[in-house]
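Q: What structure does this chain adopt?
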Amino acid sequence: MSGTSLAHDGLALVDAAKHAAAVPKLTAALESSRSPVWLLARAKAYTALNEPLLALADANEAWHAALSRGRRQLMMDAQYRRAVAYLRLGRYADADRACVWTVHLADGGAANSKDDPTAGDIGADGVYGLDIAKAQKELDERMRKKKAGGMEAAMKTDTPEMKMVNMVLTIRGHTLKQLQGLVDKGEKDGEGIKAVASMVPDVDEGKSATTTAADKSTSATSAILTPTTTTSTAPAPANLRTQDFQTATQMTISILSKGNDASALAVHFTPTTVRIDGIKYPDGQQRDWRATLGGEIDPDHSTYHVTPSKVELRLRKKDAGTWGKSVVEGAE
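A:
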């Protein structure tokens, strides 16, 4: 099978949220070409599979591949993927900076590190000294104008660049809250507030995890590339379906999963995420499930309820209002 055909299949699997099945297809395709589109698709799959270091390595390489091809939109996508990876790694300063870099590119800014718009917020000790309150106020104002703009504003933002900006603004809301939490705790010298990353990605960053991943995927990739008449490929396990509804003060997410033992489930609430350890998937296997929420909750007043057919999360909103869509990143 050609690299293009493998990539086509891999991209379709990512679109269908079948991330575990997509990775070996895309890995095999990337042996023929280091396409930024394929790298970004694999980065997305790795994020969903809770492999942020691998996602970061692909996003970094994708940025350089996009630069060499003059694909500015894909460079923006790569910065966005870096922001998501840093957020998952707990590197909140770098996650916020990657959000700023994405918007910087969307606004027509230069891609070189000399024009890094976050450089003035970094102290001599490497600590990210962003004025969080000011940044949050500017973010809130931008989101308010977007909501107040109605149809006219929606038409103006219906471009790939502005869609990307809207996505990254949601991520930035999470990073600012996490940074504020570290400041409130008196954090002065930790990975979460250190500015380590460069606007022009280091292609070696995250590569320490890729050797192990390559070893794990060798057999899967070989099976794709080597024709056989005696081996059948098992279908990838399906994701869990979810339903949600919200009021001004509560978000309820129902995860359609049958046969769970309430005493065996472990549900973890943070202000911006929910993780469930050991929930049953449609194939009968127990895996972890995770969601990045569209707003901030009060973990101490959030609960869950297990029924024979679902696990229901009842999330108390920290502040009354309407949320955007939560990002579900269940394991495959």
